[in-house]
Structure formats: C-alpha cells, structure tokens
Amino acid sequence: MKKLLILTSLIASNLSLNAQSPSKSGYAPVKGIKMYYQVYGEGKPLVLIHGGGSTIETSFGRIIPMLAKHRKVIAVELQAHGRTSDRNSDLSFEQDADDVVGLLKELEIDKSDFFGFSNGGTTTLQIAIRHPEIVNKIVLGSALSKRNGVPAQFWDFMKQANLDNMPQELKDAYTKVAPNPSGLQIMHDRDAKRMLNFRDIPDEKIISIKAPVLIIIGDKDVIIPEHALKIHRLLASSELAIIPGTHGEYIEEITTLKFNTHQASFVIPMIEIFLDKVK
User: Fold this and answer.
1) Which of 181, 214, 228 is nearest to 55 (CA)?
2) What share of the chain is helix, strand, coil (3-state, %, to 5)?
3) Which of 6, 57, 123, 263 lies 20 to 30 Å from 256 when distance is taken between CA atoms?
4) What's the rounded Cα separation, in Å, for the pair 179 and 105?
5) Which interval of the chain is the signal sequence (predicted)?
6) Residue 193, exposed/middle/buried by CB under 10 A (0-12, 13-18, 19+)?
7) How far apart are CA 115 and CA 251, in angstroms?
C-alpha cells in the first residue's frame, strides 16, 4: 500500500507539471534562430533560463505557477533546446546570453530580474556581465563559473556523455515538444561539447556584477559548496542559500520528483522575498 501511495503521488506530481497555461507564447527571430518563449502572470518581469538538455517544463514546470502569482514570468528556450531552432554553430554561454537579451528586445522589455538554473545560471552570469543595463536582480541556481566548481569526476563523466546516459525524463520532454524530435542528438552533442570546452569566468568579470544576486545550491549538488561560497564572496551585493537536497531539487526539477520533497514550497517564498527587497 505504501508503494502504491508513493507511485500515485509521483504520477500526480508529473501530471501537475506546468499545469498553468501561458497567457502568451510564440517565437521571436533572434540572431538567426526562432526562439521560443512563454509568458505567465502580470507584474515586474522575471526571466527564467533553463538548464542544459532541458525545456521550460523540465526545469521550471513546478514553480512557474508559484512565481506567476505576483510577477510577469517570461520563460525561454535556448538554441537547439525544446521548441527553439538550432543555428549552424556550437553553443556558448555568451551567445545564449546575447540571445536572451535579443528576445527581450523583441518583447520590448528594457529591464528584468533573471533566474537561471544550472547552465542557465551560467548564462545568467554572462547576461549580468555583458548586458548589465538590462539586469535588475538575478538568482543563480547551481551556476558554474570555474571548472573546479564541480568534482573532478564530473569532467570524466562528460567525456563519456551520450544519449544512453542522458536522463530519460529530459529525452522524453524534448521529443514531446520539439518540432523535429530528431534534433535530440544535436542538442545533446552541442551541450556536451560546450561543457567539455568550458573555460573559467575570470574573477574580475564576476566582481564587475553590481546587481543584487541570490545564489542557491543544494548541499548534495553537482556544484560544490566552496564554489558557491567563492562566487558569493566575489559579489559585493549577494546572498547565499544552501538547501538540503540534490541538483535542482530546490525547484523540483523534473529528474528530482522521485524524491517527493516539495522543496519549492519554502524556496520560492525565499526567492520572492529577495526579489521584492528594496535595493
């Protein structure tokens, strides 16, 4: 009976992913790609930037309804991910940053808060570095800025990365929404190559970020606590939260739903308090 109850809870959790429909969605032409976005709610804009290999739903499906109660949430999908088209070039965090800013210009948004998770957190760092004029506040969820910010075995794993060891939940989510499901291999390979070629973001560029920053990781995250602490110490106006759990469990990212911990119930109010603080 206990196993049945757990299974029922997990099924309900998956069915509730992104149950709220966007008030607006579509594609915008951005630097040679058709970039997909969704808009929810009303109020101050908050841009959500998903993790590697992910879609809007897999990274943020559980928390969009919470955030959209008080804000205009703009969720994006990056080059080759989900519904967004590919361009004939490798991925880079710098290009992703420029693409997000290009999309916001198309949507006539001059300034916004940003919440990036995992690779999306690194992209958010690049937005703050390259386009400070568009940034109000940022939330960095499990963001990487240095190669030593993850255990050494992470890089060994990336050398062996292939579709067989990509989480099934992410593969299923891609094929469900992508206009061309055969692009899964391209997305995977571009993500893997970007990580293998990852270069440290210089400290002076991180120090240059003047916007208020909330840094979040899990205590069993891919990102090691020492790395998050170093970013915190480099940023003049930052806060650090280390939440019990794994990579993305604090936002109930799709691969963590099996833990059934509902971390978002206290993490999202914490994020909202940070975003609402007067500078």
Assistant:
1) 181
2) 45, 20, 35
3) 123
4) 25
5) 1-19
6) middle
7) 11
